[in-house]
């Protein structure tokens, strides 16, 4: 592994491989990584920001699409729009990724493992996505083991009393999508109202290599609405309310045989109200209350393929109450720009689900509460060393609590236009309500005595700017090494009658990144993530964590009106678990097998006809790859969409 990492680092520097850590030029400040708005170059964590411009120029339609080129992140989607899409960050499990909407966790409490489905979220109302890799439990608690994904919703443009905006597009597979909104702002208030929707006949997600494949397409229909209102009684205070509704319906593919009567609906209702004020010019304090309600239903009626039927229902609810504070303490001796964040968070989770048929029906009906106390501090020394630390204690009523921490530092070396990053920390994933209280007929009972899954991670990295061709920012190179040890992982006991903290694992690797800017109209980017994982019990790699993931992209703007944005994604072979791999005849394989590597090419082009109107064309999977990210499920085939965006 060490020789491979050294070799890959040398290749990255010698060949100047374009990189994805620079998916976009980072905004001036990052919020998710520290809770305190901080300049990107002072954040001691690996952060990728995907802003509104990138979402539009690259034609990203769902959250799963937008995250595919993020370094250290591997996306596995078992089908197309609306199908289950799981993220694996730096070799961690899919349940070890915490997803937030405007800083509030939205992982479904009724999902058996607490994982998030990235294939459901449409992006028309998302302003930017911040992805922080590495342990985040010291800031956000349970689930932030591999990393945190924070979707930040759109806001009204400043000093614009009234603005209309929208999009309309259509294309192959009978795809139609669009959004329409109105927004405005003054010194005292701002508002935003918008709706979005998409419908597609889509593709057959079952691998065509199966001899029994019927070619049935899995259609998708999704819609969402967002409303936001903010009022500022004075210059330092604001009260804001947000309401977001989303509902999708999609056909469900089954491996190795299609089932034409299998459909699923997924609905989420999210609301929050937040108020904050600034006292004495240095202390910002705020209160927030947020509620998320999830409802998922999967129906399968008898048909010629199978006489069985199903009507599975999952309901989840999460309440979050938070008191947060930020203190700007200024300078004290050698320490400058001192910032302090602290607060208390209380969460209540509820899950009610019924799945399967008697006598093997899976049932969960439980609720739980937890309270956390968190604090973080950051400061700058000698105008070049930025240091930060965080500590959080989670107290739960029905499982052992956890104390998480993180320390990090960034050393600026302006003499060589570089910065060094070093950080370490712990994280945890609380056992889900199903893992604690679920039951399957009379054969399985959850374990209320489960401990949290826990991890320790350290990472070290360097980022360097290289001038050339008359430009001070001709190239940016980066390399980050990470090492994580997982303990107390939850799995079935030997009798499959309950769950236990029985497993441990390790993940380590390197993220190599670069961005080339040979001209003002051309930017090349890409990245290479090498990950080595190991199950300590078996010695085998962890399932669905490929050793190599490579992405490359470009932004070509020959004029100020035209933008061409190609994107190439390569995923190496990955291990699939036993009984989750299938032969071409549809029979399951009793031993773990490897999924083959795959490459997918996308291309989006935009033309700004006027200041208000832009036309675009999006091509997806132009080579019509039949790559299987999960055994038996292929990526959507070749497609194209044309459309227009407008703002008045």
SSE topology sketch:
Elements: H1 2-15, E1 29-30, E2 38-39, E3 46-51, H2 52-57, H3 63-67, E4 73-77, E5 85-89, E6 97-101, E7 104-105, E8 126-133, H4 137-140, E9 147-153, E10 163-171, E11 175-185, E12 189-200, E13 220-234, E14 237-251, E15 262-279, E16 283-300, E17 310-332, E18 335-355, E19 362-381, E20 385-396, E21 402-413, E22 418-429, H5 433-437, E23 439-440, E24 444-445, E25 453-468, E26 471-492, E27 499-519, E28 522-535, E29 548-559, E30 562-571, E31 574-576, E32 581-582, E33 588-589, E34 593-595, E35 598-608, E36 613-620, E37 639-647
Parallel strand pairs: 6-9
Antiparallel strand pairs: 1-2, 3-8, 4-5, 6-7, 8-9, 10-11, 10-37, 11-12, 12-13, 13-14, 14-15, 15-16, 16-17, 17-18, 18-19, 19-20, 19-23, 20-21, 21-22, 22-25, 23-24, 25-26, 26-27, 27-28, 28-29, 29-30, 30-35, 31-34, 32-33, 35-36, 36-37
Gist of the model:
By secondary structure, the protein is mostly beta strands. The chain contains 5 helices and 37 strands.
